[in-house]
Each structure stands twice: as C-alpha cells, then as structure tokens.
Amino acid sequence: MGESDIYEAVIGLEVHAQLLTDSKIFCGCSTKFGLPPNSQTCPVCTGMPGSLPVLNRKALEFTIKTGLAMNCIIAGFSRFARKNYFYPDLPKGYQISQYELPVCEHGYVEINAGGKVKKIGLTRIHIEEDAGKNIHEGGPYSLVDLNRAGVPLMEIVSEPDMRSPEEAGAYMRKLRTILRYIGVCDGNMEQGSLRCDANVSVRPEGSGAFGTKVELKNMNSFKFVEKALEYEIKRQISAVKKGERIIQETRLWDSAAGVTQPMRTKEEAHDYRYFPEPDLVPFMPAEEWVREIGASIPELPDARRARFVQAYGLPEYDADLLTSERPLAEWFEEAVRLGAQPKPASNWIMGELMRLLNEDGISVEASPLAPAGLVELLSLIDAGTISGKIAKTVFEEMYRSRKPASAIVKEKGLLQISDESELSSLIDQVIGANPNEAGRYRGGEEKLLGFFVGQVMKATKGKANPGMINKLLKEKLKKD
Ligand code: ADP
Ligand code: MG
Ligand code: ZN
Fold this sequence. Notes:
Strand order of the largest sheet: 2-5-6-9-1-10-11-12-13
Distance between the termini: 83 Å
Strand content: 15-25%
Helix content: 25-40%
Shape: elongated
Radius of gyration: 30 Å
Structural class: alpha+beta
Bound molecules: adenosine-5'-diphosphate, magnesium ion, zinc ion
Largest sheet: 9 strands, mixed
C-alpha cells in the first residue's frame, strides 16, 4: 500500500505573552514600554553577581488565571529552571524559565475556523523572564538595552493540533482575545507583547507519524504567521515530493521577500543544560488562592457570544463581533440595559460607531459617545422625530460634539417632516416635474416608486418620513 501523495500540514505554536504587571518578574523595576534605554534596570535584571531574584506574585497569579481560563491543570508544585545560553542581551548567561514542572499543563482552547469548532490542546503554560534587546544602529558596534530584561512572560505551548494556516491564525486570535478579556496581557503585537514561534511539518494525509518540523521564529502579526506558514508548507511539500529530506531548523520569515530563510539548526533541550534554579524556591500555590483566582475570571468570549445569541436574539455574526473585545461587549450591554432594542443597537455599533472609532484610531473605551447617547437617538427614531437617514448625521454629530441627540436635532432643524399636507404638496411638485416617470409607473413599472421616494428625500434633505412618502406616493400615482 503506497502512501497518499496528498500532504497535510501539522502545526504547533509557542506563543509568548507579556504579563501586564507593573514591575518585572524578579525585581522592582518598571515594565513600561518605550523609556530611554537602560533606564529601567537594577542589579537583579542586569545580572550582577550576588544579586538574587524574588518572584513577583502578580506574575504567578496572572499565569494561574490564564491556565484556568484555558482549561489547564494548575500544578500543586512547580519550579523554575535555568536555560543556559550565551547572547549579549542575556547578561546572566542563562534565562530563568521553567522546564519539567511548569505552572499549567493539559489545557485547551476552542477555535472556529472555516465554520468548524475545534479544540486545540495546550501542552503547557510556563513563566519566564524576557531578555534584553540588541540594537544594531549602523556604527561598528552594537548596543544593548536591558529595559526589557526580566519582564515577565508566559509561554503558551500548543499541541501539534492545527492543520492549516487558517487554524493557526484563528488559534492566535483566540488566545489574544482571552488574554485581553482576563486582563493579563495587552495583546499589543506591534510592541511585541504577543509573539509567536510557529512549528510546522508536513506528512502524507492519513499518516499517523509526524514529519520533521521547522520552527518559524518570532512573528508578531497574525498576517505574518499565516503567510509564513503558507509559504513554508508549500516549500516543505515540494521538497518532500522531490524526495528531499526536511532539516530540523529554525527559519525566519522575510516579509518583504515573502519567503522563509534558514537561521540556524535547532538546539536540542540538552544544549541548554537545563537545571533547577537554585536561587528561587519551588512554589506550591494554595488551593484556596487558586480558587480565588478562578472566581475572578470574567465571563469568557465564547460564553458571552453564546449568551448574546440566546438572550438578545442576535445573529452569530453580530455576537461574534460584539464580544471580540470586552469593552465593546460592555458598551452594547449597557445600551440594552438602558432600553435599546438589541438588534438596532448592534447595527449602530457595528456600523457607525466602529467606523468612527476606526477613523480616529481609538478603542471603544475612549469613545466620546456613551451608550446612553445611542439609546436617546434610537428613541427619537422610534418616535418618528427623525428619519433613519438623518439619524446617521445626528450620530456622527453626537460623536464629534458630545452633545445629546435632541439638542443637535433642534439646532440643525433636522426634525422629520411628518406633516401630511406639507409632504402632499411636495409630492405633487415632484410628480409634476417628472411626467415621464409618472406615466411609466402608471403603465406598470412599479419599481419606479423608489425613484420618486428618492426625489422626495432629496427635496427634503432626507428629512421626510419614509412611511408617509410611500403611502402618499402610491395614492397619488394611482389616481387619474
Ligand atoms: P522543541 O523541544 O523542539 O521545542 P517541543 O516538543 O517542545 O519541541 O514542541 C514545540 C512545539 O512544536 C509545540 O507547540 C509542538 O506542538 C510543536 N510540534 C512538535 N512536533 C511537531 C511536528 N512534528 N510538527 C509540527 N509541530 C510540532
Ligand atoms: Mg520547546
Ligand atoms: Zn531590575
């Protein structure tokens, strides 16, 4: 029996997430981003002899919180390990990480890719310190900035459960959403708060064994991860089909050239000479504490999405979008609490609000418009005070000026025209001005009604009551 000549990809991701603590993992230095080089350092994070690390309790708490949110088992006994290697941005000559006893193991997250829900297993989540940063700025030297050295990271290692770049992208997006929901990582990929090493191999479809994997190092955008994987899968399949062997190596994604390039052959674990970190005691998080941390986890995005469909009758699409960020979900629920109908509220949020926020490049938390503003606007539409069309203008004006809808309507004379005699004479004028179209309509071309509605709307600058125009037009066009 020959092997299938259709190949499938096998993908596992190692994601580094920077924890949102104020201070570093083993010292009191600030974790603030973008400060002058080496201004946030001390003997501990610069690796001075004789200095000793002390674990930041918050970093451990956040890691446990993440583990619980991602269905992991929290280890009753865990410890740090030294991972030894030499690099100028690592002053101690080793990174404090975890090896055989990580904080969290055996979890999973659910992703939705191509309309299918799939569980992606998590092998482990461990805590470690970040390294510094080498800066090569041109001159015949390199500089080292240690502000980032000792910043707390979680490494989230998945099982090799993904089968396509799309699934890998969905997985990473889901991780980011959960991390932001539970407030342990800001997910800012441009600043490197969330970055990913993607491991990928190929094998004949249906084969039980894995192929040799290649590691794609340090990608900080969803797009890059997907693009790099697409390229790498094609490269491996064509190599294997030519009878070549895949070398286990680390490659880098060159986004300008759109290719992956070899960087180095991959180290084995024994190259790092891991051993238990003697300067830090193992730790045993009390069950009581773990329970408290669990109780502090908010409703997670999947549960919230399901509830939005159930409780508010929203389409999946709306629920998915509205729950993608916690503050957005909160904005929506606040509007509904204040009396908005769920679906119209959702439409306004997904349409106008998101458009304006995107234009300004701000998040919903910084929105100048509060949910109460939308609720007022919706009530003006319901009451027939303004037309749906004018409401768009009012919405944008509310957002820009922070004035209430009613004040804007009054100031700008935007009241809907629902006065029958006023509209009636207007419609007479419109019909009179378009005798051709009127004739064709009467001859059976009923779709011309839209033309007349448009003309009346134009004449009233969108302020005419659409229901009333329709009714009057039909009456008048039927006559004579
Ligand atoms: P290493 O020791 O090389 O770091 P690990 O076993 O720790 O390898 O796995 C690292 C990551 O690679 C994990 O996310 C895992 O799911 C993934 N992985 C392991 N084997 C394969 C494979 N054959 N193909 C694709 N991904 C793999
Ligand atoms: Mg590994
Ligand atoms: Zn320090």
